[in-house]
Write a structure and sequence with these properties.
Layout lengths: L1 E10 L8 E10 L2 E7 L11 E4 L3 E5 L1 E6 L22 H20 L2 E6 L6 H10 L7 E4 L3 E3 L10 E3 L2 H15 L3 E5 L18 H13 L3 E6 L2 H9 L4 E4 L5 H10 L2 E3 L2 H8 L10 H24 L19 H10 L4 H7 L2 H6 L17 E5 L12 E6 L2 E5 L5
Parallel strand pairs: 1-4, 1-5, 6-7, 7-8, 9-10, 11-12, 12-13, 13-14
Antiparallel strand pairs: 1-2, 2-3, 5-15, 15-16, 16-17
Helix pairs in contact: 3-4, 4-5, 5-6, 7-8, 9-10
The structure holds zinc ion.
Length: 412
């Protein structure tokens, strides 16, 4: 089966001058990119089955949301109202979390996301969901999952997306358990965060020694390690431990920037989530008051840290941190809009969700750019996101491995 997309602008997101083709052609055969180049220079193969005209639109790589919680406890209709753990959760709670996950993967696909890195899940159902999608039983993005995150007793995400562990032996045990279940990445909590009551983003949590065994176990198996780290002490502890991606980085100082560059770690800032938290009901009677307060405090320093990292050349990866019934998935475009509003060039913002994200997942040999031989994970959006990044909200076609998952072109 050969599909040709022609007539539109092509953002390949590849290195150098080939990143944008003003009028390009993309040829897809057997699920992979067979050819890409300027119109008139690409030979259209004989026996073509389908030519799709995308004039006035932009062809780009499928987007990657590199920090999600596809499965989370749902507050709506749940007896546990969002708290509990794998052992204590009843069948109703687990089922509700999976039903919400199905809605999440639908929204991800419709928003042009063809892969997610899922970094914290309340139960091992994420691996079943990944298998169902890989088998083709369900339509959805490629899932690269951590399973449960690892946190200290009472630390970030306890009772929701994290398992508690203290000391290097317990951390190693949980890391190995998640790898046994099939984890693609190991996630640790270096600091407190906004989403858990009773802690501050300035709190240090797992020690560098504890995080180092998690990173070691991940690396032993050819996997990566991610750390939730919102404050310099935790960021430096995580980088000293050999962590590959720093999640959030709300407050970064010069030493953090220096160490990020030295260790070649990626920064996954998740800017938008704190603005969403800040807009929640902060009144004393609100169950989310603590989130709103911490979100409001984060926005200013987070912007400054992001700008410092961009200026220094730290590789940035886009992600929403969405999950739970208060924020369903599918809003990655808003994260890119916020990056652009903070001064990042639109092409660079798009790379954070494509080529940079694929590199952070160590899957850049497979997807993340539109280059010959790579998997045909492709999105077509209305208009030109390089002129106005809001174009990313208007997805007209989504293809994963050459399979058309969304096609809004025919209805127009
Ligand atoms: Zn998260």
């Amino acid at each position: 089966m050969t599909i040709v997309l022609e007539g539109g602008r092509v953002i390949t997101a590849a290195e150098g001058a080939d990143a944008v083709l003003e009028r390009g052609v993309l040829v897809i055969r057997d699920g992979r990119i067979a050819a890409v180049g300027p119109a008139g220079e690409v030979e259209i193969p004989a026996g073509v089955r389908e030519v799709i005209d995308v004039k006035g639109r932009t062809i780009m790589p499928g987007m990657i949301d590199a920090h999600t919680h596809v499965i989370h406890w749902t507050h709506r209709g749940s007896k546990l109202a969002g708290r509990g753990n794998e052992m204590g959760a009843d069948i109703d709670t687990i089922t509700m979390s999976l039903l919400q996950a199905l809605e999440n993967i639908r929204r991800l696909t419709e928003s042009g996301v063809t892969a997610v890195r899922d970094v914290g899940s309340p139960h091992a159902g994420i691996f079943s969901l990944r298998r169902a999608i890989d088998n083709g039983d369900l339509s959805g993005p490629r899932i690269f999952a951590s399973g449960s995150a690892i946190t200290m007793t009472g630390g970030h995400g306890y009772g929701t997306v994290s398992k508690e562990a203290d000391g290097v032996d317990e951390v190693r045990k949980i890391a190995r358990e998640q790898l046994k279940l099939g984890a693609d990445v190991i996630k640790v909590m270096a600091t407190g965060g906004a989403g858990t009551p009773g802690e501050e983003i300035t709190d240090s949590q797992l020690s560098s020694a504890e995080m180092a065994v998690a990173a070691e176990e991940a690396h032993n198996k050819g996997k990566t390690a991610a750390a939730h780290a919102t404050y310099p002490r935790g960021v430096l502890a995580a980088l000293d431990a050999g962590i590959d991606t720093i999640e959030h980085g709300i407050i970064l100082d010069d030493a953090c920037i220096q160490r990020l560059l030295e260790t070649r770690a990626y920064l996954v800032p998740t800017l938008e989530v704190y603005a969403r938290l800040a807009s929640m009901d902060a009144s004393p009677s609100s169950p989310f008051g603590y989130m709103a307060r911490k979100g409001q405090g984060a926005i200013g320093p987070h912007r400054e840290s992001f700008e410092m990292a961009v200026k220094a050349g730290v590789p940035i990866v886009a992600a929403t941190d969405a999950g739970g019934s208060w924020w369903l998935l599918g809003d990655l475009a808003y994260e890119l809009e916020r990056m652009v509003s903070y001064g990042l060039a639109p092409l660079d913002a798009i790379k954070t969700a494509t080529s940079n994200a694929a590199a952070a997942l160590r899957k850049d040999d497979q997807f993340g750019t539109l280059e010959t031989g790579k998997l045909a994970d492709v999105v077509v959006v209305e208009g030109d996101p390089l002129a106005d990044i809001i174009a990313l909200r208007h997805v007209s076609l989504v293809m994963k491995g050459g399979d058309i998952q969304v096609n809004n072109l025919t209805s127009r």
